[in-house]
Amino acid sequence: MEASIAHRRRVPAPFGGSGRAVPEWVPAGLFLLVPMGFLTVMAFLPLLKEVWLSFTNARLTNPNGGAYVGLGNYRTLFSSGSELGQVLRNTLVYTLGTSVLSLAGGIVSAVVVNTKFRGHSFVRGILAAPWAVPGVAAALIFLWMFNTTGILNRILGDLVLGPVSWLSSPTWAMVSVIFVTAWQFAPFVMLVTLSALQSVPAEVAEASRIDGASTLSTFRFVVWPHIFPTVRLIALLLTIWTLRRWDLITVLTGGGPVGSTSTIVVATQQQAFTYQNVGQGAAYAVIGGGIAAVLAVGYYLLERRELQRAGGR
To answer: Which domains does the chain possess?
Structure first.
C-alpha cells in the first residue's frame, strides 16, 4: 500500500479543483513526448527507410520505385571483386590515424596551456582556432598548401628534399587527409581535456610533488587516472566523427587516387549520387551505421564494467 502511494503524486487540478493521484512516470513521459517525436521524425524513420532501400535496387532517378532484391546489394558488396575490402581498410586506417593523432596533439596541447606562462591565453586561443574553421574551408586551405607549387613543396624545395605528391600518391594522400582531420579535431580534444585537467584537486597533485614524485610521475599516477574517463569518451566521439567525415576527403582527394582514401562515407556518397545506385549506397550506409553501433555498445559495456568495479571497491 505504501509502495503504491510512493510511486504516485498528487497533481493539482486546474482552476482550483481537487487533485488526483497519477503515476510518477506520467509527467516524465509527457516531457519526453516532444524529443521522442523529433527523433522519430528526423532520425528513426529515415534510418528505417535507409535500411529498406538497402534491400532494393532503387536508383537516384526514382528512389521510391526500386524493386525488392533481398540481400542482393550485400552479396554484391561482399563479393570477391568488390571494393568493400579496400573501403573498410581505408576507413580503419583513417579512423585510427586521425583518432590517435588528435588525441596525442590535443592532450599535449592541453598540458602545455594548463601551465601558467606569459601569453598562455593567446596561445590557447590560437590552438583552439582550427575547431571553429568549417570543414570545406579547412580543406580548401590545405588544398592550396598541398599543391605541387604550394608552400609545403616550396619549403621542401628550398631544403633540397624535393616536392612531394601529397594528394596524388596513394600513401601520401591518406597521410594528408589524416593530418588535416587531426588538425581540426585536436583543438576539441585540447579544450575538453583542459577542463578535465583543471578539475584535478590541486592539493593532491601538490602532495605528490612534496613526496618527491617527478612531474612525469605525478601526471602518470595522479593526473592521468583522473582525466582518463574523459579521454576515453573523447576517443569514442572522435571515432564516430571520423567515421562520418566526408567533406574534407571529398574536397581534398574525392576518395582517390585509385580509391586509396575512399572511406565508408565517401563510398556511400559515390554509389548513391555519382553512380546513382541508391540501393547499394544505402547498403554501404547500413554497414557504416553498424560499425558505429558496435563501437557505441562496446563503450557502454566498458563504462558499465568500470562502474561495477568502482562500486565493488
So the answer is: 73-311 (1.10.3720.10)
